[in-house]
């Protein structure tokens, strides 16, 4: 067994440490590997996300939380296995989201809610009742965890119209959770406690 002495340590080659050379392009003056720069640039751009199909309320609320935390609107297409219009609309909506429609406006997430899944139809809470889904297919957007019922689309003719869907997706993508945390100007609790002065 060899003993290390101060001479042995001095004689060994110094360890090669990563370079922290100054960089003119980085505001803090340190350079970064190109692979890291590329990864950061690609993650900075909004990307559309297609989630696994929703078959139970827990899965729904997980997707809703993911989209809320990333400040990305969640588009839900409510479908059923027996619905012929759903079989025509679903591939069109999916292809538009996959092709990047809405990414320039901030990106969207897409999830198909399988209405005829036992846990969706009879689960607690009953999601279809909660979000007033009375016909299939239905396209409903969620922003910051809230259903955007004023833009809900249940008309099969509109859902089959490519141009309409492109504009609808872009409009929903512009929301991107941007309401902020401040007051809307409306009285708190519907004015239950009077006007604040």
Automatic annotation (TrEMBL):
<feature type="region of interest" description="Disordered">
    <location>
        <begin position="1"/>
        <end position="39"/>
    </location>
</feature>
<protein>
    <recommendedName>
        <fullName>Thioredoxin domain-containing protein</fullName>
    </recommendedName>
</protein>
<feature type="compositionally biased region" description="Low complexity">
    <location>
        <begin position="10"/>
        <end position="31"/>
    </location>
</feature>
<dbReference type="InterPro" id="IPR036249">
    <property type="entry name" value="Thioredoxin-like_sf"/>
</dbReference>
<feature type="domain" description="Thioredoxin">
    <location>
        <begin position="70"/>
        <end position="155"/>
    </location>
</feature>
<dbReference type="InterPro" id="IPR013766">
    <property type="entry name" value="Thioredoxin_domain"/>
</dbReference>
<dbReference type="Pfam" id="PF00085">
    <property type="entry name" value="Thioredoxin"/>
</dbReference>
């Amino acid at each position: 067994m060899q003993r290390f002495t101060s001479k042995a340590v001095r004689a060994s080659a110094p360890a090669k440490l990563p370079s922290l050379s100054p960089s003119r392009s980085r505001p803090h003056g340190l350079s970064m590997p190109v692979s890291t720069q590329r990864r950061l640039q690609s993650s900075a751009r909004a990307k559309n996300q297609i989630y696994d199909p929703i078959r139970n309320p827990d899965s729904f609320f997980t997707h809703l939380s993911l989209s809320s935390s990333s400040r990305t609107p969640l588009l839900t297409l409510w479908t059923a296995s027996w619905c012929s219009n759903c079989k025509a609309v679903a591939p069109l909506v999916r292809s538009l989201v996959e092709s990047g429609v809405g990414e320039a406006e901030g990106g969207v997430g897409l999830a198909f809610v399988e209405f005829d899944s036992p846990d969706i139809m009879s689960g607690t809470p009953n999601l279809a009742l909660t979000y007033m889904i009375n016909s299939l297919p239905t396209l409903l957007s969620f922003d910051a965890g809230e259903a955007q019922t004023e833009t809900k689309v249940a008309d099969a003719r509109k859902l089959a119209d490519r141009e309409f869907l492109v504009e609808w997706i872009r409009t929903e993508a512009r929301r991107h959770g941007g309401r902020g945390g401040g007051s809307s100007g409306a009285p708190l609790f519907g004015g239950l406690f009077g006007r604040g002065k």
